[in-house]
Amino acid sequence: MTKRPGKVAIFEQFAADGIEYMFGNPGTVEQGFLDAGGDFDVDYLLSLHEGVAVGMADGYARASQRPALVQLHSGVGLGNGIGMLYQAKRGGSPLVVLVGEAGVKYDAMDGQMAADLVAMAKPVTKFATRVIDPDSVLRVLRRAVKIAMTPPRGPVMVVLPADVLDEITTEPAVPTSIPETRVVPEPSLLARAATTLLSGQRRLILMGDGIATSGAQRELTAVAEALGATVWGVNDSEFNFDATHRLYGGQLGHMFGANSARVVAEADSVLIVGTYIFPEVFPALDSPFRTDAKLVHIDLDAYEIAKNFPVDVGIVADPKLTLAALGKEINRQRPGLAPSTPLEVSRSRPVFPEPPLEEDTVLDRFVRRLAGRAPEDLVVFDEALTASPPLAKYLPAQQPGRFFQTRGGSLGVGIPGALGIKLASPEAPVVAFTGDGGSMYTIQALWTAARYNIGAKFVICNNGRYQLLDDNLEQYWRELGIAPHTHPAAFDLSTPAIGFTGIAQSLGVAGQRVEKLYEVDAAVEAMLAHDGPYLIDLVID
Ligand SMILES: Cc1ncc(C[n+]2csc(CCOP(=O)(O)OP(=O)(O)O)c2C)c(N)n1
Ligand SMILES: [Mg+2]
């Protein structure tokens, strides 16, 4: 039995689990284990704010489909990371967050930095615990990794007291056992699901990121084609369904349930798969479905099935295998209704003619030019909010692992998320579109990009405002019959103007400001050609 302190044993455990990176921000209570980590293969990526560390880990976990390790410092560091952890929990990202603490022996002292870390983390994690016994450190770490990776995936947190890690342990470091959850329902249940879906004439599919996690894009396409159902994205922030497919309806949106209600109002049979419904900020309180609509809900998360409204058939199963079997069953029950094999997922970007110069905009031209110039494997992180429509038009989601959006309504994910994705897919060009508002929550991520030369590109869609808040307020005025008036000054970012290229330069990232149409083409070329991170301050109206 090998004897070594827990602070060394944890690195053996990371190695056994193939962990490549630790995203973090350190403090004195973690000094012992960070000092020990120097002898191991895990690369520490220093972030200058905890939101950056968690955001980078989130992007890495999403792109790699693997657990991502985060190190935070005590209650203050965990506190700074919590908003981003909320985002990761809503999105189902398997983050393993380690939080340092002075020691169990100081429990009764209530000294500086003492806090109930488990209680702090609980609402934003799947599992939060504190290691007390030196001989259970690795056991607890493995449990955390297992829980993070078991659907529904999500962030977990383990408090590591310094004195526990200084103790000698003989625990073996062995790979974590992740349970297999590729399960299919029994045939009679599949038959019921198919019959239920075929009973309607106006069929609808509501889907989300559970499709991407399961790798079920082709199977979903086949079922949609077999049913002739329109497909709408609900909690849909990755490539789940080809956005150029004739059956693609769009995304339901995150704000108002009334908008989603209009989409589902006519449907008489509905397949909900890989998502929860409905995720808006202001969801419809009464069921927006027809009273005679038949609902089938397939997901690996039993909690989400029939969470708010009853369904006719609820199935806890893997989307990929279940949709494959469901497609076959639909064709068996109604042969000739549709093709039995899925069409190939389309790979080529749509091509649009150049509009006359006077009708073009800087934003449109930039995205169109990028779509025309960038290689096939371009990865887009879309946190552009009100500047997002040209991205959906010119760079629609068409391939697994090539499209990401923020989740859970959180801002500041774009820049760190793109860095994490670039680490997971170093060969692919990665471009993040974010706003002048969104970027500023985690702008220090640029320093991390420069320090480790992580060559993601960042496009700040700079309109001098929190435009989305203006737009939502205008809708509120309309709904309440309030006469339009000046927007709150709190939504304005124009004074003083933020100098993004100056910030980037001071943090070690090259870039340029683009204001005029004639500057766009050269800027796209410069960005794509630049070796290393690069920022474009794209001035839009
Ligand atoms: C962490 C966080 N804080 C605040 C908000 C509220 N919020 C939603 S949209 C928005 C404005 C975003 O502005 P910008 O990124 O410039 O995009 P634009 O609306 O101008 O397109 C804000 C502040 C949020 N979603 N997340
Ligand atoms: Mg803005």
Automatic annotation (TrEMBL):
Known cofactor(s): thiamine diphosphate
Residue ranges constituting the Thiamine pyrophosphate enzyme central domain according to the UniProt record: 190-326
Residue ranges constituting the Thiamine pyrophosphate enzyme N-terminal TPP-binding domain according to the UniProt record: 9-113
Keywords: Thiamine pyrophosphate
InterPro entries per record: DHS-like_NAD/FAD-binding_dom, THDP-binding, Thiamin_PyroP_enz_cen_dom, Thiamin_PyroP_enz_TPP-bd_dom, TPP-bd_CS, TPP_enz, TPP_enzyme_TPP-bd
Gene3D superfamilies with a match to the protein in the record: 3.40.50.970, TPP-binding domain
Domain annotation Thiamine pyrophosphate enzyme TPP-binding: ranges: 391-537
PROSITE patterns: TPP_ENZYMES
Top-rank taxon: Bacteria
Family the UniProt entry places it in: Belongs to the TPP enzyme family.
The protein, known as: Thiamine pyrophosphate-binding protein
Organism: Kibdelosporangium philippinense
